[in-house]
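Lab manual, section 2.4: Encoding a predicted structure.

Procedure: take the sequence of the chain (507 residues), apply the prediction step described in section 2.3, and record the output as structure tokens. A sample record is shown.
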Amino acid sequence: MTTLVHGTDTLTRDALTVLQPGFVGTTAPDWLLRRIGEGLSSVGLFGRNIVSPEQLTALTAQLRAERDDVLVAIDEEGGDVTRLEVKQGSSFPGNYALGSVDDVELTRAVARELGRRLAACGVDLNWAPSADVNSNAENPVIGVRSFGPDPDLVARHTVAYVDGLQGVGVAACTKHFPGHGDTNVDSHDALPRIDVDLATLHARELVPFRAAVAAGTKAVMSAHILLSALDPHRPATLSPQILTGLLRQELGFEGLIVTDGMEMQAVAATYGIERGSVLAIAAGADAICVGGGLCDEDTVLQLRDALVTAVRTGELPEERLADAAARVRALAAWTQAHRARGAESVSGAAVQEGTAPGADIGLVAARRALKVTRGEWPYTPMSSAPYVASFTPVANFAVGDETPWGIAAELERLLPGTETCSYADSSVDALLAAAGERRIVAVVRDVHRHAWMTEALDALVAARPDTVVVEMGLNEAEPRGALHIATHGAARVCGRAAAEAVAGTGA
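Recorded output:
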């Protein structure tokens, strides 16, 4: 492609500084290192970039060998959305589990241990936590990523999570402003709308964000959602009324405003990534997140050149781009200062957390989050290998389909010989035939949102009333089965805690 500039003038450097791109591979490609040398200040990591803590540490060291103040960002929520453990499942339960326990010190400890692991690998900006109030149980993209449907509960746990991360030098990025909880559309696919009045927004959506700003969150991520009461024309990411008027001026936030992924269809389908990025910076955003899908050099150059052109044509004020770049550099300086003290403070945190409860805090939290309901059928813990039937919905983009979930692997560890199969329709004839005389454990995820899953589960329990049901999504449906276990999330540790309950071996 033809680039507009070939040097490293201030305008070009500022345009590169506000980008947070991704890339392919487990080492940094040459093009990325070259652009870091030219002014690129941030890099976003995804599951495709990570295979082990050792490899991740080497990757971040490679990036910082090029520039020691580069921001290394990641989308590591724990729970269902994990990049650190994308192939294994997370060692930490997600927000819904933590909110169900409602112990802010537990949430702070989980976030601190997660932050410690990120910092130890050289990651210093986490696109988390989700501060969305999940007021719509039909929400296809937030769900268990939220602490729950109550604004005050979400607010106190958001604050605890921010404190935990930032206490070990990892900047929190509270999302998805001004709140993605009351939607029934995934913004990866289309533009969601929230049509409630301002009083509702202030009493519900904005409560956790006000608390996070007051707690000193270093960054806030915007949502690609249309809130008609605030701006009937543009999604929040592109709205001066929302980013500058509400977040900056009314809420008083002075940190970094990061966009959600610019290639998501809620923005890209209407505006395209180039115009969308220009409008976002003009509206008050400081950093453009891109790379979940578009992760090559051409994307970086296109966005850089779009910003430079917008300044030169007068569409984007140069001082607005300069201000955005300055906010990126300010956050980079904060994280760099923490790293400079870092090895000591991080290792100190590891020692402090290591005894009670330390690295096992995720499992401790997952066990506490279990809700076990006994049915009318008498239940005794399983002592022989069961048949696990996983009713598998289509995964949303944020969670992805790479990360394993369920309890079969953990049950196999406790009850060798456990077999499993996935099902995606309402018929249970093949399931019953495959199970034979073995006890059945039915694993579901958001059964209340899937009519086929409800039908299959009802038929299964009618045929085999001794079935154990494990719900690993939102716990909205009525409990059924001889034993009903709500894990409040599908992290690996949630599966382990449920397996222990099934086998009667819980700690």
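Check your result against the sample. Confidence is low (pLDDT under 50) at residues 1-7, 345-357.
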